Amino acid sequence: MIRDEADVTTAVAPSSPLTAVDRCDRCGAQAYLRVELQSGGELLFCAHHAREHGDKLKEIAANVVDETHKLGTSPVIATDGDH
Hints:
Helix content: 10-25%
Number of strands: 3
């Protein structure tokens, strides 16, 4: 028996890490939380707005990328000898 149908998988590609270019949809601050919606699309939030809207976001999220742990790290500062 020959099948004319293609095998299709619905695997979701992993989300890329958030960068300094990603901005909160509420206030424009750097985003540390990406919420991929069950209905499609995504929302980006700073840590403040992620906490403020956390309960509602859990209800509508298909996937959440939480990088708020980055807020606890110190930035790397270049010295004169590093260029």
